[in-house]
Design brief:
Elements lengths: L9 E3 L5 E3 H4 L17 H13 L3 H11 L3 H12 L5 H51 L15
Antiparallel strand pairs: 1-2
Helix pairs in contact: 2-4
């Protein structure tokens, strides 16, 4: 007697794993979490830079990269930031204060520009009223002595 063999049709997927017919069209319901990118604080970056500077050869440097989970371009970028003074807390606070002052000055300039526009509008209206008054006085032959500012002469 022959043993009965499993005669189900077996396919392979893209990864080369064998799949049975009933598994070919199924979707894996497992949700794969997204990789969260690490954020390094200024203190951590300075510590890693110091450790990298202490390395005496490329093997030690490679071991540091693996230990910290970083790439060489990170270290290059962090050294550039350090040279620019971006890790200096006092400099960062000074830049932030300057930015806040600039923001406040910009707000003040905007409010003054609005006020100036409103005053110019009122001035044009006043000039129009004075112009109309002059025309009426000319039509009615009433003499009004006005100075250049539109005030009556005494």
């Amino acid at each position: 007697m022959k043993k009965m063999e499993n005669t189900e049709n077996i396919n392979t997927n893209k990864t080369g794993k064998d799949l049975k017919d009933h598994e070919v069209n199924t979707i894996n319901p497992e949700v794969v979490p997204k990789k969260v990118s690490r954020r390094f604080t200024a203190a951590q970056k300075l510590r890693i830079i110091a450790a990298a500077d202490a390395c005496q050869n490329k093997l030690e440097l490679g071991a540091l990269y693996r230990k910290e989970g970083i790439f060489s371009n990170y270290l290059r970028k962090w050294r550039k930031q350090k040279d620019e003074g971006l890790f200096d807390i006092k400099a960062q606070k000074a830049k932030q204060e300057l930015k806040n002052e600039t923001s406040q000055l910009n707000k003040k300039v905007l409010s003054l520009e609005k006020e100036n526009a409103a005053l110019e509008k009122k001035l044009k209206q006043a000039q129009a009223v004075i112009s109309v008054q002059k025309k009426i006085s000319e039509i009615m032959n009433i003499s009004i002595d006005l100075t250049e500012n539109g005030e009556k002469k005494q």
